[in-house]
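Bit of a strange request maybe. I'm writing a small parser for structure token strings and I need a real example to test against, not something I typed by hand. Could someone generate the tokens for this chain?
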Amino acid sequence: MKKKHIIALILAVVLVAGMVFAWSTFSEKPTEGTKEITIEVVDDKEASVVYEVKTDAEYLIGAMEDAEGLTFDGSEGQYGFTVSEINGVVADFTVDSSYWSFYVNDEYCNYGVSEQPVNDGDAFRIVYSTY
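Reply from user aminoacidic:
Good idea to test on real output. This should exercise your parser:
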């Protein structure tokens, strides 16, 4: 009886190893840049630059990091990351009541860049604005 149990155990291990190998070899792999979005930046002189971005980012800040040529700066605060500078243009509300406003699919974003979800096909617009 012991030989049968050992043989059954060996067969089970070989079968499990074969299934793991097949799954790792043939399962669908995530591809880089599975979401295609656009990010348009409109600066203080109303000049517009559009970035076509392929990203896996969950949130807008990650997609902005993936946008080739787009630079930005800001600070982490109580409500997430606050953008103060894009492509060298600083918006400082305390100086001239300016700020960066964010839109997704022509609607004002309800979240900051740290929490704004990114979905395939989204069109983001970042606009230098004054109050």
